[in-house]
Amino acid sequence: MAHFFLRAAGVGRRTAFVAASGSAVLLSGAGMAYATSCKEERDKHKILIVGGGSGGLAVAAQLQIKGEKDVAVIEPSENHYYQPLWTLVGGGGLPRQQEPTTREGRHALGCPLAQGQEAPVLVHNMGKVMRGEKPTAVYDGYTSCPLITVRTEGGREGGRGYSSLLLAEFKYGGEVAETFGRVIDQAEPRWAFLQLKKHVFPFAYWELFLRGRWFGTRGVIPPSFE
Question: Which domain of life is it from (predicted)?
Fold first, then answer.
């Protein structure tokens, strides 16, 4: 349902998408040929990211911002979608108790913009591990599920409809983590939240998040882990 509304608003997909991530190499379209020879690409680049979805591009962009220039992203598709299925990324497959370091093997579903809160943790911990140090940054599992609701006048099919959105936000273990909870009741679907979904989130995704400039509920303010 969310994809239907976004497609109608014209924000669903961009063709031949190239992330503005500095000097990172994006191997798209014909990238499948490169993907079959990962070892060769790994020998050429210090960091190889397999998958140019929202997580891969966000991590690549933040690595660029951190000064890591030797990065390659392998992505076989020429299309990039605003709402990919998998939204969180992990740096390995360690036991579940290490989830806060983003090195877990299990991944949650949710809003891709939630990665803006997770990607800096992964980038910071990746740098620590590459230097032979222990990862110290912690990710609390924050994710968001914007749920669009549709109603019709009088409850009749074909009646004039209007929409609102329930903005559900939570952390690991289902703990509620509402951004606006101190001001309004987020348990109530609201028209204003729908406008965030239709207008603010797409802009933040395309223009900020994929460029490593969006940090979840912090907006454009980057976190500090030191």
Answer: Eukaryota
